[in-house]
């Protein structure tokens, strides 16, 4: 049986979250946490709204998923995020012990990948996923609008 729930499906859900952030004037990053083909957490950047530099989509998603599961570790879970996690988020993701992280767009300036993924938990699989162009375009549009 072919499942419609694949990396592209879940990244589209993260992209919907990024669009919500865009509409709020937040840097458009969205994330979802998945376990057993079920989304257990949805989040987007809220740094402006909450006046909190740590309110990145990944941080919000970790908190919501841990609350849903009733524990601090996210073993068996996958995070889908529209932008490569920053160093701060990579540290939090390390401690959450996710099985897998799938991101769409690279963050050449602030992404944790600059450190050859050494910041992630050694058992966490990190991969570049689908929708790179769409997620990159959303970020580009956001920052171009900010500069006008």
Sequence-ordered SSE layout with sheet pairings:
Layout: H1 7-23, E1 30-35, E2 38-44, H2 47-50, H3 57-69, E3 77-83, H4 87-96, E4 100-105, E5 125-128, H5 132-147
Parallel strand pairs: 3-4, 4-5
Antiparallel strand pairs: 1-2, 1-3
Overview of the structural elements:
The protein is α/β, with parallel strands linked by helices and about 150 residues long. It is built from five helices and five strands. The protein has helices spanning about 5-25, 45-50, 55-70, 85-95, 130-145, and strands spanning about 30-35, 40-45, 75-85, 100-105, 125-130. A five-stranded mixed sheet has the order 2-1-3-4-5. Helix 1 (about 5-25) runs parallel beside helix 5 (about 130-145).
Keywords, separated by commas or semicolons:
148 residues, alpha/beta, five-stranded mixed beta sheet, 5 helices, globular
Helix amount, in percent? 40-55%
The helix tally amounts to 5
Oligomer: single chain
Instruction: Please provide the count of β strands.
Output: 5
Largest sheet: 5 strands, mixed
Q: Average pLDDT across residues?
A: 94
Could you give a short description of this structure?
The chain contains 5 helices and 5 strands; from the N terminus they run αββααβαββα. With 148 residues, the protein is α/β, with parallel strands linked by helices. It is globular and about 45 Å long.
């Amino acid at each position: 049986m072919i499942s419609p729930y694949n990396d592209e499906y879940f990244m589209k859900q993260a992209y919907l979250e990024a669009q919500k952030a865009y509409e709020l004037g937040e840097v458009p990053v969205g994330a979802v946490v998945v376990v057993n083909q079920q989304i257990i957490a949805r989040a987007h950047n809220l740094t402006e709204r909450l006046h909190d530099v740590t309110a990145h989509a990944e941080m919000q998603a970790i908190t919501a998923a841990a609350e849903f599961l009733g524990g601090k570790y996210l073993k068996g879970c996958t995070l889908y995020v529209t932008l490569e996690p920053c160093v701060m988020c990579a540290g939090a993701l390390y401690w959450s012990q996710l099985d897998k992280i799938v991101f769409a767009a690279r963050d050449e300036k602030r992404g944790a990948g600059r450190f050859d993924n050494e910041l992630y938990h050694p058992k966490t699989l990190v991969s570049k996923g689908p929708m790179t162009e769409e997620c990159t375009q959303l970020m580009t549009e956001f920052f171009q609008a900010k500069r006008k």
